[in-house]
Amino acid sequence: MASRPVFLPAFNGRQLVQERSFDFPWAPGFAEVQKKKNVSALHNAAKRHGIEKILEISSKSEEELGKRLSAFSLKVPLNSGKFPLESVYQGSKTFEKHGPFPEVFRMTPREAKRFIREINAGNLVRFELDGKRFPLSPKNAFYDWLYIRALVEHADWIEKNVHYDGFTDIEFNPTKQVNCQARAFAEFLSLLSRSKLQVAANDFDAFAEMLSVV
Measured between alpha carbons, how far is residue 137 from residues 61, 79, 107, 131, 182 in Å? Predict the structure, then answer.
């Protein structure tokens, strides 16, 4: 058995996202068919608790929309152009001994992750992007902010065409990882419904304050 979260947009209240975790039988292995089994099992568990329409946001999604909303597919607009979200996130990392790494922006997401993983530059101390510094706290703020910025120009289309109750990312294990594209998309929908999307996308500090509210 395993437990994984489903993220639901919160259209009112203090928090942007509601997180609900469900237990389901886990199919071990790295094959894509096994991961899709896990997606289906998680969604079925959530449906038994009243969450009907669920979208898996990852390269393992059965739906094209879920694949397109993956952080490996999205691009973030910067002063110097548009680059893969995951590559920007990795290249913005600044360590005790070295960083940031803007040359990483032009790498593929997998190349960027491998490049940063192999660097021995001490502890991560902050992020730096377009001449600005960003803190490590809230833990998922910088990643989620990049994700939201990548989708802002598609807000009208998303508002008209994306209608789900909850979102998952089967690769995300909350006991081991911090960032989750499914949670970031749920935040995006909450901000859109509250007419705070532009403020959050343009002002990291304002977005981080929204995340910090408990």
Answer: 30, 24, 26, 19, 19
CB 140 within 8 Å of CB 203: no
Residues 59-118 have pLDDT tens digits of: 889 999 999 999 989 999 998 899 999 999 999 999 999 999 999 999 999 999 999 999
Question: How do residues 172-213 score in pLDDT, each as one tens digit?
Answer: 999 999 999 999 999 999 999 999 999 999 999 999 999 986
- Give the β-pairing of 17-24 and 132-134: unpaired
- Adjacent-strand bridge partners of 22: 4
Nearest 5°: CA angle at 166, between 163 and 172? 130
Tokens of 140: 């998922």
171 vs 101: CA distance, rounded Å: 26
Q: Rounded CA gap, 137 and 140, in Å?
A: 7
Tell me the sheet residues that pair with 7. 19, 167
Model confidence pTM above 0.90: yes
Q: Go through the chain and tell me how many residues it has.
A: 214
Q: How far apart are CA 31 and CA 94, in angstroms?
A: 34
Kindly report the backbone phi and psi dihedral angles of residue 20, in degrees, each rounded to the nearest multiple of 5, phi listed first: -125, 130
R_g of the chain computed on alpha carbons = 17
- Three-point CA angle 186, 191, 192, nearest 5°: 95
